[in-house]
Design goal:
This protein is mainly α. The protein has five helices and no strands.
């Protein structure tokens, strides 16, 4: 029984955190294309507000996580929870807060 619990804890902690390189590429593509459809391909804004580091300054990771995961009722911002989990969302937030967006071709 303890071995099963230990294995489960290890598997859970190994799955949390930074996505593998393939998933990072998928998430960068989602950020550029899906988020970019409303927030602009260069993240400078469009239908949605800009997603540049200076525009996000002052917003906590928890607030950004909630907005991405749950969306914003009454706006065009949909919930992304069906497509990205909380750890992936936190990784996306790190990407958004970079001064220079990482190219999709790079492994990060």
């Amino acid at each position: 029984m303890w071995r099963c619990l230990l294995l489960l804890c290890f598997a859970t902690s190994a799955a949390a955190g930074k996505p593998d390189p393939q998933r990072q590429r998928e998430l960068r593509s989602l950020l550029k294309n899906d988020c970019g459809a409303c927030h602009g391909l260069t993240r400078k804004g469009g239908l949605g507000p800009p997603l540049l580091p200076e525009a996000l300054a002052g917003k906590s990771d928890a607030e950004l996580l909630r907005t991405i995961q749950e969306g914003r009722p009454g706006t065009a911002m949909p919930p992304w929870k069906p497509f990205v989990d909380a750890d992936e969302t936190l990784w996306l937030i790190e990407e958004l807060l970079r001064k220079q967006p990482v190219s999709m071709e790079h492994g990060g």
